[in-house]
Amino acid sequence: MSDLHVVLGATGAIGTAVVAELTARGHRVRAVSRGASGPHGLRADITTTDGAKAACAGAAVVYQCAQPAYGRWAAEFPDLTRTMLTGVEAAGARLVMADNLYMYGPVDRPMTEDLPYAATAPKGRARATVAELILAAHRDGRVRATLGRASDYYGPGGMNTVLGPPVFAAAVAGKTARWMGDLDQPHTVSYLPDVAAGLVTLGERPEADGRAWHLPVDPPVTGREFLARVRAAAGGTPKTAGLGRGMQRLIGLFNPVVRELGETWYQRDRAWVVDDTAFRDAFGPVRVTPTADAVAATVEWFRRAA
């Protein structure tokens, strides 16, 4: 039986972390991306059927960590998922999807996996469609699939995130570190190595198939608490601040990435808390990095990368 674990989008932040976790656990790995290199790398375009089949060939487990550009989710994510599924199906592999929380839309309680897909904005609907396509393929017997969901992530390599350049890169450069949203609302944040560990656990456990799981996380923090930890780890006296809706709208006039955040501002103006009880009960005990340690490691990575 094959023990080949294939990581799609292997040069992105989550994909890189998954490759590292798989390697640490002794699995045979194929790292797939358009710019892959090294002895375990494969260059492939998984937006095409031939590319997806070549990427997944011979795999026991495929980790889908690839995604379109943030502003192109609605236009491209569903079709990417359909094509990716053809590759997984042709290989007879299991699928682990690196997912997020957008499909739930605005919430008024801690998020559990039984919440309806209530998002109405384009990005949330796109993520709901992706999840529905994958779970439908599982129900139809085309693939065996599971989804691992994480909140806003940070960690070594975490550049394409609201916690990367605005918080960590700014702090190590001595600039103002800015938290997107209300500084005093609790917010679950996910540490990249913990996200990877959760996804690989799903890849190792076939009983995970057929549903979504919230990946294990440390307890939520407020923006004010998180920035205080970043300030302590960075040393010196970096300034910290919140970025509210009005400033987001203003900056968004000139910055398309910041402008995109307005669509899901409901994730930033109220409590945004993940309940990971189901994963812990099914697969525990789990390893979760304390936030203070995770922040310190992330500051150090951004300092070396500066």
UniProtKB/TrEMBL annotation:
Residue ranges of every copy of the NAD-dependent epimerase/dehydratase domain listed in the record: 6-209
A Pfam family it matches: Epimerase
Chain segments annotated as coiled-coil in the UniProt record: none
Matching Gene3D superfamilies: NAD(P)-binding Rossmann-like Domain
Molecular function GO terms recorded: aldehyde dehydrogenase (NAD+) activity
Tree of life domain: Bacteria
A Gene Ontology cellular-component term: cytoplasm
InterPro entries referenced in this protein's UniProt entry, alphabetically: Epimerase_deHydtase, NAD(P)-bd_dom_sf, NAD(P)-dependent_oxidoreduct
Record's protein name: Epimerase
Organism: Virgisporangium aurantiacum
Source lineage: Bacteria, Bacillati, Actinomycetota, Actinomycetes, Micromonosporales
